[in-house]
Amino acid sequence: MVNGVALAVLAVAGVLNGLGLDSVPLWRQLLFVVLAILAYLHGRHLPVPRGWVVLVVGGAVGLVVTAVRPSEGVGVLGSLGLFVALPRLAGQFRLQQAQLIEVGRQRITQLEREREWVAERARLRERGRIAADVHDSVGHELALIALRAGALELTADTERGRAAAAELRASAVAATDRLRHAIGVLREGAPPLEPPDEEVGELVARARRAGLRVTLSGSPGRLPALVDRAVHRVVREALTNAARHAPGAPVEVRVERARTELVVTVTNPLVGPGTGLATAGTQSTAGTARSASTTTTAATTTAVTAPDETSSAEEDRRDSGNRGGSGLAGLAERVRLLGGTLRSGPTAERFTVTAHLPIDPVERDR
């Protein structure tokens, strides 16, 4: 409204200044210059949605004056057109040009941010894949080393041999904890998409050769690649946890295949007098858009456990759900995305990991 009034004032001033041009004093000549500058600034900084209406009305007034007094009308139209309308149109053009430049600059900035975001997400996904691969491969091997050291510690004939085995086992556990800290730096993103290098039976056989007392019943058979990979990861993670937290305890792996569903169950006793595997359940439910993942794993102690293992267990209990993230919590999300569920926790003096996976999965959105 104010901008329109200002434009109307400029138009009236242009009309009045165009009257009586027979003798134009200096101040009126300067007024033409001032009108042109003000009209340009008005168009440049004060946009009026229907400013052309004001100019048309001013032109109509000039035509009326021309009809009544032709000599005066030419001056009015010239003053209004040359010193009000044209400067304002020039200012309006500059305003639109500046707005287009600003829009283009904002668009370029937005595209650059989107490109940086895409690159960052790709980098984080790759870091997540690396973290998950390191956790699932190196962490598994470290757990088996700790298991072998524990067995050697129990069967060594000399005190020196038992001490060396205990030191080796403590070092393996400490290395696993440091690995989890390193994974916490890398971890953010999806687990790797490469298929496992071995079947479940081969994985169990390798764990058995390493000294883990594990039995396998049932077979998954032929499965889609996504389900086969998930089954392999569930069994491997469960065996790794059992080797680390319940060394020497028997582990049972059951694979039950129905017509539309595959159920994988891995159980082991909670070992150690007065101690237990304090593990919060990790659950992911099919048909929902979210999964609840809580911390897993807390190390148990035996009579021959090294002194620093308890502190490592407490630290692992606090941080395993927040930093490593590639264990049972990460698997729960992968299983959920396939439309299944994963539950883990102590039940009846046993620690149980149970995964329900559809035979024909439909991956859900993250």
Automatic annotation (TrEMBL):
InterPro entries on file: HATPase_C_sf (IPR036890), HATPase_dom (IPR003594), Sensor_HK_TwoCompSys (IPR050482), Sig_transdc_His_kin_sub3_dim/P (IPR011712)
Gene3D superfamilies in UniProt: 1.20.5.1930, Histidine kinase-like ATPase, C-terminal domain
Domain Signal transduction histidine kinase subgroup 3 dimerisation and phosphoacceptor: 126-189
Domain named Histidine kinase/HSP90-like ATPase: residues: 229-359
Transferase is among the record's keywords: yes
One cellular component term from this protein's GO annotations in UniProt: membrane
Single GO term (MF): ATP binding
Enzyme Commission number(s) from the entry: 2.7.13.3
CDD domains, per database record: HATPase_UhpB-NarQ-NarX-like (cd16917)
Entry-linked Pfam families: HATPase_c (PF02518), HisKA_3 (PF07730)
Keywords assigned by UniProt, alphabetized: ATP-binding, Kinase, Membrane, Nucleotide-binding, Phosphoprotein, Transferase, Transmembrane, Transmembrane helix, Two-component regulatory system
Transmembrane helix recorded as keyword: yes
Transmembrane segments: 27-43, 50-68
Protein name, as recorded: histidine kinase
Source organism per UniProt: Saccharothrix syringae
